């Protein structure tokens, strides 16, 4: 058994015993992208990542393929994979797609959301608030992304939830590339207000607030910045590889 399978994070345990090595590797990379620990353009060496996670290159390759389908990783023939780096034009298209998706999602969420789902999202907002207070920018960004993914779950529409996951992670790449301020997270006050509208079943208010929320995110983008590149070993330093 590899070190990766021995190590279980809190998230891994929540996913249950059916989680595979592919799922774990995918989850770590997805979170690193969402937290902006893996900036756009970072080369994803299969050999290095195999050593980091203690798994075969085949497993790394499958995880990267899954991420490429979600368009957050670019796989180049004979050149390996890199974290996607959206152009200005691509960023504008992604943001427009995100707007269309979010408005549909929030309207459906106001109809279908359960008390349990709303409570889960409020807990995410609380964690996001805590991360912001602690100055943990990466964690606050990830929690903000998870909040928006959970809104899609509330909508009770599986295709929307799947598309939303991809768009949220792509948005994180855009923010990493083009954010003009240091505060990359969404406002937790806005998240709370969105939940209040959903809980009240007020579709009109929820849609209006989401439009304002997305405009707030977009207003912080400056579409002319370059992105840094991080070292893979440093990014995944929290993943401990233990030999059997």
From TrEMBL:
Residues 19-86 form the HTH gntR-type domain. Keywords: DNA-binding, Transcription, Transcription regulation. GO terms for molecular function: DNA binding; DNA-binding transcription factor activity. Pfam families: FCD, GntR. CDD domains: WHTH_GntR. The keyword Acyltransferase does not apply. Signal peptide: none annotated. SUPFAM superfamilies: GntR ligand-binding domain-like, Winged helix' DNA-binding domain. This is DNA-binding transcriptional regulator, GntR family. The lineage of its organism: Bacteria, Pseudomonadati, Pseudomonadota, Gammaproteobacteria, Vibrionales.
